[in-house]
Each structure stands twice: as structure tokens, then as C-alpha cells.
Amino acid sequence: MSEGVTPPRNLGELFLGFLSIGARSFGGVLPWAYQAMVEERRWLTHADFTETVGLCQVLPGPNLGNASIVLGKRWFGLRGAIVAFLGLFALPYVWVLGLALLYADFASNPMIHAAVTGVGAAGAGLFIATAVKLGRPLARRPAALPMIAACFLAVAIGRVSLLIVVPVAAAVGMLLSKAELL
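Above: the chain sequence. Below: its structure as C-alpha cells.
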């Protein structure tokens, strides 16, 4: 473990840490998870966070939900996996349920429609900022930028399914890694 990294000391700290991530994860959980786990609480290094999220992106389900299970298990076993997952999703579950009930009554209001559009734009901005933050260390490797561009073009422009892009990118990444290009 790297110096300066201090994983949660107990299940309560683990739960509250993931609860705080879930509580402020408007527009996407990834930016807030990075800020909380790497910058504020120093549970993980930047590299460990990137690797964990990278692994969890190829698994079915929400990326950070998967990461909460992986990290909770790493630190406290099965109980930690359950506690971290519940912490992450407790408040968002309640809020989404409440907002769904309200939205059903007010969805036709133009002000509500404009607010939802604005929140969506803010969420997209947070996601792009986090992608850039996570991509910086990768971009220093010779083959990383062409791989990033190829994956982006395949998915965003070519509309190729992630079920195809992810395994192909993983295989190409392993080959490039063996050749020490990635």
C-alpha cells in the first residue's frame, strides 16, 4: 500500500464514506467517488482508483456499485461488500423514489423540463472532467491515445456495442502491454 493511503478503519467509516459519495452524486457518481476516495479520505491512490474503476466498467451493473462491492470486500470481506454497496445506494434510492413521484405530477411544466435539461448538461460536464482526469496518466503511454481515440470513435461515432469494443480493447491492450507500448 502506498504511503499516505489509509483505508477505512471499520465498517461504520466504510458505510459513511460511501453514504457521502451517494449523497452528493448528482449528475454521476464517478467524479464524487474520485474526490471522496482519492482526494479527501485518501482510501486509494489515483492509480488504484483508476484500475478498480476500469475493472468494474467491464462488469455488468453500475460501475461504482461494482467498485463499492470490490473495495468493501477487499477491506472487510463479505460484510464490507454489503455495507459499502448499501451506503452508496441508500440515499439515492430514497431520493429517486421521491423525485419520481414529484416528477409524475409536474413533468409537463416547462420550468421543470428546463431544470432537468440543465442538470443533464451539468452531469455531462462532470463526467467529461472526470474522464479527462482519469485519462491523463494513461495518455503518457505511447499507444494509449490511439486506443482511447479508437474506442471513442467505435462507440460514440460508429455506434459499435460495448460488448464488442471492451473485449477487443482488452485484447489489444494486453498485446500492446506485452510489447511495452501501453
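The chain has a mean pLDDT of 89.
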